[in-house]
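Hi everyone,

Forwarding the result from last night's run.
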Amino acid sequence: QVPFAGQVIYSGQDLAITWENSSLAADSLVRLEYSADAGGSWQLIAEVPNSGTYAWAVPADLPNANQGQFRIGEAGANFNTTSTELNVVLRNISNLVLSPNGGEEFFTGFAYDITWEAGQMPNSTVQLAYTYDGGAIWTPIANVPDNGSYSWFVPYNVPSSDEAYIRVMDISNTSIQDTSNMALRIGQPVLSLNAPLGAETLYTGRPYTISWVATGIPAGETITIEYSADGGATWAFLASDILASAQSYFWDVPTNQAVTLDGFIRINYAGHPELKDQNTVAFNLLKPSLTVT
């Protein structure tokens, strides 16, 4: 029969309870109960016909109990004298997922840690999955050992969403699972050039501030800045290992820099091939002139 002595029953689980009771008619009622305090108090599961099976949707608020009990007997006045009891373990896994657990922000093209309480599932392997539509569709991430941690590289093609969740699920029983308590956000990282944008005039021997917007690039990551004097046909390194979070770079334009009417600045982040930007209209780079009056 199910549950059997010593069986672990999980919160949220779909458990098929089975039994044999040939001493009762098939249309007799049997009563199913469980206890989380070694029989000190009992909670009703159901009163059902003596069909030998009952599909129990185990409640999400099932208490944790190493000394849980389950019993079944004839419903009514004879219950206490006809019931059979056995010891079970009750395990609540409604807070299995530790992170992300809601409110975090993940960006495509970067890796983030998924963590959960290890060793609580029936099997030594769990399936990790994500949803970006509030749970309507789940996409598997990986089947991994139940060790409590996995580094997830968020695919580039995951749509932006404010309704994303992570799920940890037993590999063989899909009803034994937990998800993030609240939604997290998945977004697309941004690296966008603010200045120069084009049509400006820069001068040799004078400083110019190159600026950009960086969103979703991890702290400490750096970008490269390049310069072209021929409309982008060729590029030369202007600066490297510049913190993306600085969002500006002070360019002290050399006095001997060649003049051009076709100047471009390009910024790029090597860790994410799609993160790059440049001005779309050329700027001028000229030598300063003096006007005598």
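The mean pLDDT is 93.

Cheers,
N.
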